[in-house]
Amino acid sequence: MLIPDPKVVRTLLTRYASLKIAQAERERDETARELADVSYTLCVMMGTTSIDDAIRKGDALLLAAGRSTRTAKETDDEDDLSLAV
């Protein structure tokens, strides 16, 4: 299974949230269309059929990506430390 780029997922989740807020403040056809497009893209990217599932999977992906980045940084820091000793 392909894993989406976390940066792209973060961008889509942020855009989705912004559009939901904009639509709640003032309903517009253009915003509704863009919201539908972003929702569809998130669902396809995350391999789901519902936006709620796509958001959950996207959040989990970002959480896992953050953990792996911290672990890699900690490993690099440890490597740097051992070289300096």
Helix and strand arrangement:
Elements: H1 6-25, H2 29-46, H3 51-84
Descriptive terms for the model:
85 residues; disordered C terminus; mainly alpha; 0% strand; single chain; elongated; 3 helices
Task: Write a short abstract of this structure.
With 85 residues, this protein is an all-alpha fold. Helix content is 85%, strand content 0%.
Terminal Cα separation, in Å? 42 Å
- Unreliable spans are 81-85
What general outline do the C-alpha atoms trace? elongated
- The total of beta strands comes to 0
Radius of gyration: 18 Å
Q: Tell me about the biggest sheet?
A: none
Q: How many helical elements?
A: 3
Average pLDDT taken over every residue: 87
Order of H and E elements:
HHH
Sheet-strand content, in percent, reads: under 5%
Which structural class fits the helix and strand makeup?
mainly alpha
Helix proportion of residues, in percent?
A: over 70%
Question: What does this protein look like?
Answer:
- By secondary structure, this protein is an all-alpha fold.
- Helix content is 85%, strand content 0%.
- The protein has three helices and no strands.
- α2 crosses α3.
- The longest helix is centred in the C-terminal third of the chain and has 34 residues.
- The protein starts with 5 loop residues before the first helix and ends with a helix.
